[in-house]
Amino acid sequence: MRADAARNLDKILGTAARLLAADPTVSMATIASEAGVDRRTVYRQFDSREALLAAIYKARYDAVELAFEAARLTEAPVTVALHRYAEGIIAATRQWPVAFDQMAADPATAARRRELGDRLDTFIRRAVDEDLFRADLPHGWLEGLLRQVIKVAAEDVPHLTPAQAADLAITTLLNGIGRV
Questions:
Q1: Which CATH architecture describes the domain 48-175?
Q2: Which of 52, 83, 116, 172 could join 46 in a cystine, given CB atoms 3.0 to 4.6 angstroms apart?
């Protein structure tokens, strides 16, 4: 792919992700206009709205997979891996702000999500085994809480860097919000 075509593709995908997160019904023409490209450029890259959405979902999960790899969930000390994971997921969520309910219908994305969920479950079991997390909580509780704390950190404190937001998320997860 030529450099200008790659730049256009990045602009289209980034703009589309941002606009679709705000309004899932946004038109291809609006996406093209906001990306600073001709509508025909969008249709040359993506023959349908579904193809554009699939490309956004792929880009998001590519970024999520990179976050998983950078976290080194099986090798790094568990607290280091947890922070790296949170920071990477926060950055990926901010870069690709599409909601899961938008992605759930795409079979390839759903399969990737399951695979990454299995990897996260394995890490959470490791964190429990190493006494970072409590062992007496119901199955799924830790993963759900971790996902929600990271989601809030990614979406609701945009003035913080991903590293700062990860610090806040992990500190809150590990220490709670109450004064005990």
A1: Orthogonal Bundle (1.10)
A2: 52
The secondary structure of 149-179 as a DSSP string is HHHHHHHH-TTS-HHHHHHHHHHHHHH-SS-
Overall size of the chain counted in residues: 180
d(C-alpha 155, C-alpha 108), whole Å: 25
- 1-47 is a CATH 1.10.10 domain: yes
Q: What is the pTM of this model?
A: 0.88
Distances from the Cα of 69 to the Cα of 16, 72, 74, angstroms: 26, 5, 10
All CATH 1.10.10 domain ranges in the chain, comma separated: 1-47
Answer yes or no: is pLDDT of 106 > 90. no
Give me Rg for the CA atoms of the chain: 18
Range(s) for CATH 1.10.357.10 in the chain?
48-175
CA-based nearest residue to 92, from 68, 116, 123: 68
Q: With beta carbons less than 8 A apart as the criterion, state whether 85 and 68 touch.
A: yes
In degrees, to the nearest 5, what angle opens at C-alpha 109 toward C-alphas 103 and 115? Answer: 130
* Inter-residue contact 119 to 85 (CB < 8 Å): no
Mean pLDDT value of segment 70-74: 97
